[in-house]
Structures are given as C-alpha cells and as structure tokens.
Amino acid sequence: MTSVNRCRRCDQGRIVACRVRGRQDRVLVCEECDTVWESDQAPQATPPHLILEEYLARFGLPGLWSELEWLEAAPLPEAIRNLAGGYFHQDYDLDSGTPRQAVEAYGDEEPPEAVAALRAAVTELLAANPSERELARLWLGQAGAAYDPRDEGITMSRWFGLVLKVMEERE
Fold first, then answer.
1. Contact 27, 71 (CB under 8 A)
2. How far apart are the first and last CA of the chain?
3. What are the CA-CA distances from residue 15 to residues 37, 100, 153 (Å)?
4. For the chain, where are the E strands, in sequence order?
5. I want to staple 122 with a disulfide (CB 3.0 to 4.6 A). Which of 10, 24, 100, 164 is the partner?
6. Residue 3 has pLDDT above 50, yes or no
7. CA 106 – CA 14 distance, rounded (Å)
8. 26-30 sheet: strands from edge to edge
9. Using 50, 70 and 90 to split pLDDT, how confident is the model at 136?
C-alpha cells in the first residue's frame, strides 16, 4: 500500500498508512479530516470511507490517534520518539508521578547528547509552527505517547514548550 500525498476528501491533509495497535489491518488515514480508507482502497472523495472514531469503535477503542501505529517512516525525530516511548508509556505516572517529573527524569537519566538532541528536535519542531492538531498527532500517533496534555487543559505547543524549558534547564 502506498501513501498518497493529499486527501481527496478534504484536499488539505496528508494521507498516511497505519494499522491499529495490536492488529494487522492496514488502513490509510488523512491527518487533517480523520478519514479512513480500509485495505487497499484508493483514497477518494466519495465513500467507501469512515471517520477514524467510527473505524476504531469497531474494535471497542476510543477514536484516538494514539490507537494507531504509523507504517511509514516517521518524520518525527528519534529524540522525541524516545521521550514518548521511554518516559510516557501507559504506566508513566507510576514511574514518574507527574508529566513534568517524567520530562525531568529524561533530562536526568539520559546522556547529555540525548538531552541536546531532544532540545534541538523540539526547537526545530516548534519553529516549523505546526498546528495544535498536527502536534497532537505527532506526539500521540507517531511518537506513541500515552500522555495527552490536552486532558489537563494544556495545549500541545505549550507542552512542547515545557519539554524544551526542562531540557534547557538540564544543559
């Protein structure tokens, strides 16, 4: 299955190949409008297609990007994926307490070059001025973090700003 550059339904989003975590079903998903095309369907503006929430409900899952595993090479830097996977897994709060403490643990436990790489990656990410929606998809979908700062009323850009601030304190 190949990726198509733009969604033919909303004409704005990029389409990515994904699968539901723990399943083998492959789908195409628009990053902007959350449209899902099953199997090897060519993405098109007219049905058959589903909205992500409807598709994931089939499996008893919430309609969240964190339920998806990206099958394409992620443009997200490895340093951000390491923070998400290593410090924001599903039991992160048992290990670290608060999200800030998890970020601080990364800064304290990882080698200085990893801290510098995370700082550079977050700086570059924020400089690109992505939308809040794109930041959420990167953090939850691509990086696979189990923590969603929006649940606490924190915007994604503010969250990445906090990560950056903590990394700057560690250098």
1. no
2. 43
3. 10, 33, 28
4. 15-20, 26-30, 35-38, 50-51, 68-70
5. 164
6. no
7. 31
8. 50-51, 35-38, 26-30, 15-20, 68-70
9. confident
Q: Is 132 helix (H, G, I), strand (E, B) or coil?
A: helix
**Residue 86 one-letter amino acid:** G
Furthest-apart CA atoms within the chain: distance in Å: 52
Omega of the bond prior to 48 within 30 degrees of 0, cis? yes
Q: What is the pLDDT of residue 80?
A: 93
Summarize the confidence of residues 74-86 as an average pLDDT.
Answer: 84
- What percent of the chain is predicted at pLDDT more than 90? 38
pTM (global) more than 0.70: no
Q: Is the pLDDT score of 123 beyond 60?
A: yes
Give the residue from 46, 12, 24, 146 showing the smallest Cα distance to 91: 146
